[in-house]
Amino acid sequence: MYKLNFSIDIKAPLAKVCQLMLDDAGYRQWTTPFHPGSFFIGDWQTGSTMWFVAEENGQQHGMVSRIVEHIPQQHLYIEHVGILKDGKAILQGDEVDNWAGAREDYHYSILPDGCRVEVQMDSQQQWADFFQQTWPQALAALKALAER
């Protein structure tokens, strides 16, 4: 796995940025660069299972993940435990072995004129270029939403 790091400074209150990141309507907007129409099923509470979903040809695909730790407006740590394929969670097998245990860490900090969002994630080599291009777009979309 490769460790990828991204960050963005946003001229908006941290509470607003976190709300936009994690509520349904905001999430659907800022994650569009990853896949238009992306959404989640679950909640952001520590210990919860989350499905990060994209629909293609009427089928749901994505990641099955666990919220390892969520301290609102400070830190969010997600571990990917499986995949979602054709609307079914797959937690074992070759397709999952490549991703199982991959993590995403979000850290938030307050700045004098807003806040900073930092993201560190694990990626397989084959997806690294995609994430290197897409994460900056997604964070820019979050910034635009928050600074409106």
Folded structure, characterized:
- Helix 1 crosses helix 4.
- Strand 5 and strand 6 form a beta hairpin.
- Strands 1, 2, 3, 4, 5, 6, 7 and 8 form an eight-stranded antiparallel beta sheet that branches.
- The chain contains four helices and eight strands; from the N terminus they run E-H-H-E-E-E-E-E-H-E-E-H.
- It has a single domain, classed as Alpha-D-Glucose-1,6-Bisphosphate, Chain A, domain 4 (2-Layer Sandwich), CATH 3.30.530.
- By secondary structure, it is α+β, with helices and mostly antiparallel strands.
SSE arrangement:
Layout: E1 2-10, H1 14-22, H2 24-30, E2 39-41, E3 49-56, E4 59-71, E5 75-85, E6 88-90, H3 94-97, E7 103-111, E8 114-123, H4 125-147
Antiparallel strand pairs: 1-8, 2-3, 3-4, 4-5, 5-6, 5-7, 7-8
Strand content: 35-45%
Shape: globular
The CATH homologous superfamily corresponds to START domain
Question: Number of DSSP strands?
Answer: 8
Helix count from the secondary structure assignment: 4
**SSE pattern:** EHHEEEEEHEEH
CATH architecture: 2-Layer Sandwich
- Which residues sit in consecutive blocks of at least 5 with pLDDT less than 50? none
- Give the mean pLDDT: 94
Structural class: alpha+beta
- Based on the structure, what is the oligomeric state of the protein chains? single chain
Radius of gyration: 15 Å
CATH topology: Alpha-D-Glucose-1,6-Bisphosphate, Chain A, domain 4
Measure the end-to-end span: 36 Å
Specify the CATH class. Answer: Alpha Beta
The major β-sheet equals: 8 strands, antiparallel
Helix content: 25-40%
Please, how many domains?
1
